[in-house]
Amino acid sequence: MVRGYRPVINTLAKGLDIRLGHRVVEIVRHWNRVEVTVSNGKTFVADAAVITVPLGVLKSNTIKFEPRLPEWKEEAIRELSVGVENKIVLHFSEVFWPNVEFLGVVSSTTYGCSYFLNLHKATGHAVLVYMPAGRLACDIEKMSDEAAAQFAFSQLKKILPNAAEPLNYLVSHWGSDENTLGSYTFDGVGKPRDLYEKLRIPVDNLFFAGEATSVQYTGTVHGAFSTGEMAAEECRMRVLEKFRELDMLEMCHPMAEQTATVSVPLLISRL
């Protein structure tokens, strides 16, 4: 992604009513509607909801579901695992590394293994991205951004002893960020593969999407996108089906001819 994901997000967001800074704290489902309450106390009402929050957030129980989600859904949330992989972006004045996609950091233990992603190949900018994962990534998150950047640079010096100091840096904190609490979903040891599908299956008028619900492309952006499209279509069909049931009731009701027709808008919330 030469210019990052922002152009993609901006394109997909055109025409949508997106509310930033609205952290969901409670989701109440009824047979004919969903009530979503955010941290400032405001409540949004919709016919259905598509829930795409990261698995780490679902695991933290910071969102209360009323009534509780079924046991099989809670089991999927509980048993799937969340991993952490961070990015420490180092910007240099010039390129001094070989023209390869990756620079691997070899270690005597799995803990210390990592790599640098060469963004110069894709963007033309003198940028390397250090990509620590697992326990190493979690430990680096405990450092200050400056210390994390220095650690990344020390790893680069092991590969290229004459490496120049970076001009500036950016550090992600996916494991501790309250909006993510992790980077990607993975299989726990000895856990069944059907947990991904269980997490995806709708509960009444609640639909679930995101990389953690993708059986084939877990942990990827395209996995998240494809499950989002699937959940949106299922949600649309469910809402239209509900309206058809209401129409049938109206037609069969003896007072139907005396009842004024009410136009109900199709409202689908994306969380």
Automatic annotation (TrEMBL):
Q: Which UniProt keywords apply?
A: Oxidoreductase
Q: Provide the family line.
A: Belongs to the flavin monoamine oxidase family.
Annotated GO biological processes are:
spermine catabolic process; thermospermine catabolic process
Please list the residue ranges annotated as the Amine oxidase domain.
3-235
Per its UniProt entry, which superkingdom is the organism in? Eukaryota
Q: Give the Gene Ontology MF terms in alphabetical order.
A: flavin adenine dinucleotide binding; spermine oxidase activity
Q: What is the lineage of its organism?
A: Eukaryota, Viridiplantae, Streptophyta, Embryophyta, Tracheophyta
The UniProt entry's GO CC annotations, sorted and at most eight, read:
peroxisome
According to UniProt, the name of this protein is Amine oxidase domain-containing protein
Entry-linked InterPro entries = Amino_oxidase (IPR002937), FAD/NAD-bd_sf (IPR036188), Flavin_monoamine_oxidase (IPR050281)
Q: Short name of one Pfam family for this protein?
A: Amino_oxidase
SUPFAM superfamilies named in the record: FAD-linked reductases, C-terminal domain, FAD/NAD(P)-binding domain
Q: Which organism is it from?
A: Aegilops tauschii subsp. strangulata (Goatgrass)
